[in-house]
Amino acid sequence: MAPFTRAPKAAHLSWSREKLAKANKKDDDDAMRIDPTCPDSHFDPHPPYSSSPFLISTARIFFAASPMGSASEHDVREHLLDVDGVGEGAPAATAAGPKIQVRGLTRRSEASGEEILRGVDLNVPRGVVVGVIGPSGSGKSTLLRALNRLWEPAPGAVLLDGVDICGIDVLALRRKVGMLFQLPAMFDGTVADNVRYGPQLRGKKLTDAEVQSLLSLADLDPALYSKPASELSVGQAQRVALARTLANDPEVLLLDEPTSALDPISTQNIEEAIVRLKKTRGLTTVMVSHSVKQIQRIADLVCLVVAGEIVEVLPPSELSEAKHPMARRFLELS
Predict the structure, then answer these.
(1) From the candidate CATH numbers 3.40.50.300, 3.40.1280.10, 3.30.1950.10, 3.30.590.10, the one assigned to the domain spanning 5-333
(2) Which one of 58, 105, 113, 309 has the fewest beta carbons within 10 angstroms of its own beta carbon?
(3) E strands of 174-277, at which residues?
């Protein structure tokens, strides 16, 4: 099996900056897939293009709101964020306060009715890396996917810059809040073709220098610019996917176990790119990971999720002080 595949064509928890400065897989896919009743879902339980779980999982990278559905040019355009701004009538964003606020976020399984998220409250400060960890099935990925409406949260449950994300055009939101998944998928063509794809849909062609700059930000050698995407290693492909996301100039980056399929060197490259983006661009990052050590290396805050609830938010240096019994057990066994 190829390491990656081409995508088909066509507790209110708020932390002060002072404390932050001082501190310095898909666990719930089986329980919660994208809501088939959501207008953006295009849910198809019998995908026509493949019965392979690997290809299905990979297709979800780009067609996130149609996780098991057939690919189309509309899907590609939608999920590479073919927009220029916020939706008509959306209120102006505010610069003060947390970058993201989550208030009373709840989600139930369509199949069983079981609660996946139970009244989650969370503040994500600006320009920090927040690591989300916890046992499998605890709701980490479901929480992450609410932040750019890969499923529809209740009105008022998720705010971006103080603005309810339900009032922002969904494509504009996904341009502001980019997402990188576990498995990279490359379009036909060169590395440069892949990086240019999103902006090109909006009528903007990135210059060679702009593409090479984005590759550097993703910790890639700009000399890979003209290399066929099909010849990349999985680690290189994941970083090209990161560069492609950055080409849309997001304000927030959501990462769902982006290094779980990578070797240690490729993992280090991705981690260094995340930290560099925080320092150079002030990018706010929320990252789901099963690796406690990884989160300790790169996160400013750690969010512990257990059974659909956030039970602890603390600096990585204080993880040993976690008080929740299940959180402590998870950390001890990690």
Answers:
(1) 3.40.50.300
(2) 113
(3) 177-180, 185-186, 252-256
